[in-house]
Structure formats: structure tokens, C-alpha cells
# Entry
Amino acid sequence: MAMTADGKIATANRAVSTFGSGRDRDHLLEMRATADAVMAGARTVDLNRVNLGPGPAKYRRLRLKHGLAESNLRIIASRSGTVNPNAEVFKRRFSPILILTTRRASQRSLKKLRAVADKVSICGENEINFRRTLGWLRQAWGVKRLLCEGGGELNAALFRAGLVDEVHLTVCPKIFGGREAPTIADGVGAADLANATQLKLKSAKRHGNELFLVYRVTKAMQAGGRRSPTSNLCPPTSGLMLSFHPPREEPEQIRQPVQVNDNFWIVKLIGLLQCAHAAFRAAANGARHVERRRVHAGAGSRPTFVSDVLLFNFVDQLF
# Structure
């Protein structure tokens, strides 16, 4: 998910929600090519011209290479059922669209949504029961890997349910500010550090001025404040990947400090001794040729000897 350097995914007035680079966009489509289904919240599909589809032909071919259907299942989550039936996502019918909602949705809203979606499912009283819903998606629709593209409220609900396996973040070189600007996880949030979702950095890449980060969720909060390893919360058969925005060239890998040990210095010392021995032998054997080489080098210039070249090698070994 693309976010600014201060953690915002849109401006406070929601007027700007797309600000990543072309590489970020390509990255999103690459991730969609690994998922059985792509999910987003109602506001995300209402305010953006998105269809949640696989994208151009090369990504559809990539899906087939991964053993997936050519197009992914599309899912929209809305507790109140307030999804605009005229949104862009409903205008292209290349794969099924499911809408997840609750009993808070009015009959009028449900009727409109059933006219444009392939399935409208009631998944709870006031809140969507994502744990039960993911089980249903697995059984009824064969969803083993789900990519969620926000917004912040939906992301937060998945974190609270302990259903997130990975978080993909693109940090963009911008500052939006604004206390009302949405972040990658809104809602109530954790009450203290002990109840925060715990992450482990899996990879970090740089492309231009953007950073592409992948975190593995190690511990997540359960209802009642109890935390458990995510492997117990979300088994591989119903794995959930939470992504955060999208991207041509492979991003530059951030260089890590080189770790050295005693063996490293032993090898270096042996190389130094070998170079020194070779340099001294060459100097002794070539001493009788010094005057002849000086004449050939010309007046005022310094001749280059075999020992000079070996000294360069000696320095290379040292550094």
C-alpha cells in the first residue's frame, strides 16, 4: 500500500489517494497476479476509478503461469452496504464481484447492489465477521490467498481479527499531514504497545525515491487483548496477504553491512603474504633492466616496473 512519509494513504479531504510511481503501480499488479481474490472497502471503490482486476495481458499470463484463473475474484466490503452501484468496478464484467455487508444495510441498498454484483452476502450483525467470512470464501469460492487494498478502516478490521500474514508498503517521498487524513490502519487502534500488531521486516528495496517494504506479521491481537502467533490465527489454507499499493525496472536492493569473521582476515593475510613474496621476487629479477627501461620511458618520466603492478595488487588485497 502506498503511503506518504508521515503514514498517510490519502489527503484529509480524500481528494488525492493515488500518488505512487509507475513502479508502484506495476508492483500492485504483480501482487494481484499471485492472489485468488482482491478486496477493497466501499470508499476505496467509490472514490477511485478502480476495477480490482488483473490488469494488462502480461499479468493475466502471469496468473496462468502461477496456476490461477486468468482473472481474480473481486470483493467489496461495506458494513452498511453504501456502495455506489455506478462505481467503475461494476462497469466491466470479466470476473465475479462479491459484496460483503451486515444487517445494518437497508433493503433498498441491498436491492441495488444485487442488481450489479454477482453475490451479496450478509456476514454479521453490525460488523463483518472476517474470520468466518474467510472460511466461507475458502469453501465456496476457493480463495486461498486474498489481497486487500484498503482503505484504512478495512485494514484495521483485518489486523484486529488477526488475519494478516504480510504487509506490503511503498513509502513515497511526500508529507500530507492532517489529523483527519487516513492512515494504513484506522479505527480504534491498539490501546498500548503490548497489544500492537508485531511485524518483522522481510525485505526492503529502493526504486528512485521510494522504498518498497515487506513485513511479515509475527503476532496479532485477538479479541480480549490476547495475542497469538499468526500461524495459529490464519493457517496456510486461508492465508491472507494485506497489501498497500502499487508499481518497470527491478527496485534497487538496499545494501546491508558486510558481516566479517576471523576466517575473512586469515584469507586476506594469506593473500597479502603471497603478493608481497611475488613483488620482492619480481623486483630482484627486474633490477638489471631498470636503466634500459628508463631510457625507453623518455626524459623526465617515471618508468613502470613489474613490481609496481604487483604493489597495486597488494593494495587491492588490503582493501
Observations:
- The first strand starts at residue 2 and ends at 4.
- The chain has a mean pLDDT of 78.
